[in-house]
Structure formats: structure tokens, C-alpha cells
Amino acid sequence: MNIYVCIKQVPDTETKIKLNSDQTWIDTSGIKWIVSPYDEFAIEEGLKVKAQFPESKVTIVSAGPDRVVDAIRTGLAMGADTGLHIELPETADHFITAQAISKALQKEEKVDLLFCGKEAIDDGAAQTAQLIAAAMDIPALTVILEAQYTENSVQVKREVEGGTIEVLESSLPAVIAAQKGLNEPRYASLPNIMKAKKKEVKKVSLADLGMSESDQKVKLKNFELPAPKAAGRKLDGTPAEMAAELVKILHEEVKVI
């Protein structure tokens, strides 16, 4: 099988976000970048399928500026075989990202399975996997908790509203968007981290795909940081006194009761 895993590099969750000077994007200087956690489940699932079908090849795909190669190397250190870097501007929207990925994959020899995380933790849009599937005209199976594979098909389980489990079956190729619980991502060993530095990462530009930055549909401006949180208040006294004081605050100051 030819297995591809699409990943996104995102700021670490502990990063303190600042805006750039013209408030059109975040200030990327000094940020610690990581692989989006849901994408780690996608990488692990691709490696599990490779273990089931040993002749398979796993390719890590990421679209963005040069820094995303570090994220690709993370996937290679986990056990993937090769990488594919699609050069995109820092502010690329979901449409141009999905179009670029789909066009790049259509230039590959064959795509049997394409894994993604269900969403990236920076914007939580949860749409790139579906956009890629639409562009490639293949099925998209999202928020997947369990999957069983054959050489030509996949059966998956996904949780829908109310905790109901939905079972779907699809022919291949297909896009599978991983949810937490699908597997337990492995840690990269030191020998594999060293080996990853020597594995091939192919680079593709927008021009190579017959595209340009003008294909982007959405441009953002006037970013604003959330207002600082007000300091908390500590109530003293017996439980009854504190309850009475809380009710008074909610009634007279907050005015919610």
C-alpha cells in the first residue's frame, strides 16, 4: 500500500501568542513548534497499517514554510519512510492547502490511504481532510475511533452525537481523519531520530503544481488578542457565610440572579 499522512505544524500549547506589527498574523519568532496532536494519531495509524501490510510505504506530507520540514522529520523518526514538503506561505488558508496537497498527491504514483488528524489545534477548523477528499474525489471518513483494513477496503467506527457509534465501510483510496482513542502514538527512539535526518524529503512548490498564492480564497486582518482575565476573588468565612456572599455578588454585582 502507498500510505500518506498529512500533518500540520502548530505552536506548542504553552506558547504565549503575540501578534505581528500590522496585526495580520501571529508573531512567529520564538515559537516552539510541534506536530498537531491529532496528527500524531494519524501517523501512528499509518505505521500500524504498514505493519499489517509490510510492503507498504508511509510518506509524511506537510504544507507550509520551510520550518514544517522539522515536523516531517518527527514523523520520519516515528518510522515513516519518506517526506513530502509542499511550499506554502505562512498564512495559507484551508482551500489552497487542500488544493496543493491534492494536486501534489495526484502526481504521486498511487495513493491507497490518506490519514489526517480530525482537526489542527491552532484553528480547530476541521475541514482540510474533507477538502482534500473532495478535490481528489475520494471518500472522507472523519472523527475515527477504530478501523479495520483490507487491501481494498476499510471499516471504521466513529462517535456521533449522543455517544452513538456509527459504523462505516469504504473502498480504497479514502481519507481517514483520526480522533483521540484511535491508537497510542509511539515515541521516536534516538536511533530513529538520527536515521530520520538522512531520509528523503521531497520539496514541491506551488509553481510545480500549476498554482500561485492568488489561488487563496481567504485573507485575514485585524487580529486581536483576548482581553486579560480579571483577577479572581477569594471568599472567606464559614460555608454558609461564603454561600450568602456569593449569592449577593451574583445578584448585586454580576446581576445574573
Structure, explained:
- The chain is of the alpha/beta class and 257 residues long.
- It has two domains: 2-215, HUPs (Rossmann fold); 228-257, no CATH class.
- Helix content is 28%, strand content 25%.
- It has a nine-stranded mixed sheet, with helices on both faces. Strands 2-3 form a two-stranded antiparallel sheet.
- α2 (68-78) crosses α5 (190-196).
- The radius of gyration is 22 Å and the shape is globular.
Relative helix content: 25-40%
Number of domains: 2
Biggest sheet overview:
9 strands, mixed
The overall pLDDT average reads: 94
Number of strands: 11
Tally of alpha and pi helices: 6
Give the helix/strand layout.
Elements: E1 2-6, E2 9-11, E3 33-35, H1 37-52, E4 57-64, H2 68-78, E5 82-87, H3 94-106, E6 113-117, H4 128-136, E7 140-149, E8 153-159, E9 165-171, E10 174-178, H5 190-196, E11 201-204, H6 239-254
Parallel strand pairs: 1-4, 1-6, 4-5, 5-11, 6-10, 7-10
Antiparallel strand pairs: 2-3, 7-8, 8-9
Helix pairs in contact: 2-5, 3-4
